[in-house]
Amino acid sequence: QVQLVESGGGSVQAGGSLRLSCIIPGYTISGRCMGWFRGKEREEVAVLGSDGSVRYTDSVKSRFFISRDNENTLLLQMNSLKPGDTDVYYCATGPPGDRCWFDYWGQGTQVTVSS
Q: What is the DSSP letter of 84?
């Protein structure tokens, strides 16, 4: 069973920054499509394809940045945070390959932005 572990959530005032991290203990994240999602509806926030391509939901463009720190850590740099960004953030992935299948999920990390 592939399990993802997120960290880096917390409380911050509007305009502040947070950086979320995601690892898959025992596995490399290279060669996989990886994504960040939020909320009960699992809204897609940012996706990093196995080919290095990225996409963002409109509400976070130019504020959030998804990247891979090394073969084992996925990052989400969140800047200029707004109260509307408050939610539980999840990291997800699927089997290695070109397709973005999100079969495996972490437990989530809480992000709270106060005005």
A: G
Are the beta carbons of 93 and 73 closer than 8 angstroms?
A: no
With contact defined as beta carbons under 8 Å apart, do 1 and 101 qualify? no
pLDDT by residue (tens digit) across 15-72? 999 999 999 998 888 899 999 999 999 999 999 999 999 999 999 999 999 999 888 8
Strands 109-114 and 10-13, how do they pair?
A: parallel
Q: Which amino acid is at 66?
A: I
Cα dihedral value 3, 103, 67, 46, nearest 10: -130
Give the position of tokens 């996989």: 32
Q: What span, in angstroms and rounded, lies between the C-alpha atoms of 89 and 25? A: 19
Q: Which amino acid is at 88?
A: V
Residue 58 burial by CB count (10 A; 0-12/13-18/19+): exposed, middle or buried? exposed
Q: CA of 74: how far to CAs of 25, 62, 84, in Å?
A: 12, 18, 23
* pLDDT exceeds cutoff 90 at 113: yes
Spacing of C-alpha 100 from chain mean position: 14
